[in-house]
Amino acid sequence: MSFPPEAEVRAALEAIHACDWLAPKLTELVARHEHAAAIARQEWAGPHHDTFEERFTAVQGDLNAGRVWVFQVRREAEVILAELKAQALQSTAALSAQRRPG
After folding, report:
1. Would the pLDDT of 82 be above 80?
2. DSSP type of residue 43
């Protein structure tokens, strides 16, 4: 199914905007999670230290995977937007060529 070019442009711009908003939030969350874990490690005396570290590593991995995904989506949205702009320029050039008296 094909959408009108205006809708595709808007979707690409909104995707870029959402990624620009989400990327720093995820970066901040990774840092806060690391900070909280560093505090917990200093006071750790429990028998489940390995479990703590495994869970911490898994959560950090998920957060970082989320950041990578956001950057990939943004990059894809930029590519789509560039393609749509190029198509619009080609269409405009074709219309201009048709209107010129030959």
Report:
1. yes
2. T
